[in-house]
Request: fold
Amino acid sequence: MKFVIVFVALFGLALAAPPQSSLEATVLRSIVEVGPQSYQYASETSDGKSASEDGHLENIGTEEEALVVKGQYSYIGDDGITYSVSYIADKNGFQPQGAHLPVAPVA
Reply:
């Protein structure tokens, strides 16, 4: 849980940092909510980047207690195409999905 609080705090500091030049993106939207057993954040910048994530504890108080995270992010690549990735991170590991990501061959 301490990791989540530190992560959200660092994320907030990164968003709050003043731009180094007038060409940098500005934050259009930023939402951060942190509770004792869950958190969520969402942000959007003027350069077309966006991200959101929800995390919560499952099986609280048991040996199987785990953090489950669902989220997405998107950005506009140098080629002008918008790339989007959605993901789940749970007891089965990090599982990203995106049209541009390679897929393992079917065995």
User: Anything to note?
Assistant: The chain has one helix and six strands. The two ends are 38 Å apart (CA to CA).
